[in-house]
Design a protein that fits this description.
With 452 residues, the chain is an alpha/beta fold. It contains 14 helices and 19 strands. Strands 2-1-3-4-5-6 form a 6-stranded parallel beta sheet, sandwiched between helices. A hairpin with a 3-residue loop joins strand 18 (430-438) and strand 19 (442-447). Helix 8 (222-230) runs parallel beside helix 9 and helix 12 (318-331) packs parallel to helix 13. The longest helix is centred in the last third of the chain and has 24 residues, at 358-381. The protein is globular, with a radius of gyration of 23 Å. The relative contact order is 0.08.
């Protein structure tokens, strides 16, 4: 299909939120590229400005409103007409209702409608009207679209969309829909193709990857998928998100057995209190989570564990919070994403009355951050005076003479760029770094191998 108003137009995409949104943005970018559009570095140079949104926390709404409104003060678009589009979860949730607060938005497309972005934007250029598409389901999947990857050596690979868990605080099932797994062979074929093009690292994506295949086969087959993907020749496999209640023993075995699966696992706990976990509808207890951690570490010693924790869930008491602190201390996370509870209209938790003072919640949050910083520092000490393999991502923003990359445990690693090499020649290569410094959020040392 030809979109006559798009050829030669410039575009800019700003992405908020999770890795699934990042992948969706790469698909939108690929689609616009295929229509003859050109990506630019900022909205001021763009004929098309697209915001790919997240609605997990209230701050995302505020940021979207601010950045959309700021488009009004941009200099004129290169073509003389600028189309502003909003996609992703806020678009799916609010639909045309967004136009009430954002009168300069021309196009709104939901999470199931990104394959239609080009036709919507083309129509907006053609008639100057608002164009909204927020279907509950759509026959054209994002994975069928062209793909403009941010990095040639790394790729996101969605294996499923949607979520069936309905955690009481979470809006995701309402905007991403029910769980829908991609065909097993389609995923393996995609990774095989990525390997042929030089991709070395993939991240398998899903709202709950451990449920992969339940809708297709009657029971989850994520362990089988890990083994099959591991046979494609891909060098590094990460995956997210992983729900504790569905992490089966066979998946832990596959993680241990497949060399390409990196020794890193993001396993969101959300709270250390069984009482709060029940209110959250997480479907596991504190004791079950800790037993799972022990079983994982028994099969994969030294694994880097990361998590998500919500502070200030409605009704959380000091005792509940102290159980969260003690769980974090017991697990010893390498990294944690900590959040203050954000009420989301339409979720069961939003109906729970809570009178906990804000300063109490902030104090708890800061206490938790200190525990996580201590555990991250302690975890990184295990790699001091060892040699780690590092996939080079670029140079340090603070010091261009230093390369920056990631270890198999997803740690950030810094090292001086070796003599005789430019950073451009090293991006996407793997080097060995002898670690002589281990800090809370990074390792550093010297490159002790040729790039490969």
């Amino acid at each position: 299909m030809q979109f006559t108003h798009l050829h030669g137009k410039t575009y800019f995409i700003r992405t908020f939120g999770c890795q699934m949104n990042m992948h969706d943005s790469e698909r939108v970018s690929g689609l616009l590229d295929s229509c003859g559009c050109l990506e630019v570095a900022g909205p001021e140079d763009a004929d098309i400005v697209i915001f790919m949104t997240c609605c997990v926390r209230e701050a995302a709404d505020t940021r979207l409103y601010g950045q959309c409104s700021s488009c009004k003060s941009l200099p004129p678009a290169p073509s003389g007409r600028r189309v502003v589009a909003v996609g992703g979860c806020i678009a799916q949730r609010d639909g045309s209702g967004l136009l009430t607060n954002l009168d300069n938005v021309d196009v709104i497309f939901g999470t199931h409608s990104i394959a239609h972005v080009a036709e919507l934007i083309d129509a907006a250029f053609d008639d100057g009207e608002h164009h909204v598409r927020c279907e509950e389901t759509d026959s054209e999947a994002a994975t069928t679209m062209p793909w403009h990857r941010a990095e040639q050596y790394r790729a996101w690979v969605p294996i499923m969309t949607g979520c069936n868990n309905f955690c009481s605080y979470c809006i995701v099932p309402y905007v991403r829909g029910r769980e829908k797994s991609r065909a097993f062979e389609e995923i393996v074929d995609e990774v095989t193709g990525l390997v042929r093009t030089g991709v070395r690292e993939i991240t398998l994506l899903g709202q709950n990857v451990n449920s992969y295949g339940r809708d297709l086969f009657g029971s989850p087959r994520f362990a089988d998928l890990l083994r099959a993907v591991g046979e494609t020749g891909i060098e590094r496999i990460f995956f997210t998100s992983s729900h504790p209640k569905d992490l089966l023993p066979e998946t832990i075995d596959a993680m241990a057995d497949v060399p390409a699966v990196m020794p890193q696992l993001h396993l969101a706990v959300q709270s250390g209190s069984s009482r709060i976990l029940k209110l959250m509808n997480r479907k596991y207890t504190r004791e079950q989570y800790l037993d799972l951690i022990d079983r994982i570490r028994d099969r994969i010693p030294g694994i880097a564990l990361s998590t998500d924790i919500i502070v200030g869930f409605p009704g959380e008491t000091e005792e509940d919070f102290e159980q969260t602190l003690s769980l974090a201390e017991r697990v010893g996370y390498a990294q944690a994403f900590t959040f203050i509870y954000s009420k989301r209209a339409g979720t069961p938790a939003a109906e729970i009355v809570d009178d906990t003072p804000r300063d109490v919640i902030l104090d708890r949050f800061n206490r938790l951050v200190h525990v996580i910083e201590d555990s991250a520092y302690a975890f990184n000490q295990h790699d001091l005076h060892t040699t780690v393999s590092v996939l080079v991502e670029g140079s340090s923003k603070k010091d261009p003479s230093m390369l920056l990359g990631k270890s198999p445990k997803n740690q950030t690693v810094h090292a001086p760029i070796p003599d005789g090499y430019s950073i451009d020649a090293l991006i996407g290569k793997i080097v060995d770094v002898s670690v002589d410094r281990a800090r809370t959020w990074y390792l550093s040392g010297d490159v002790v191998s040729d790039p490969r």
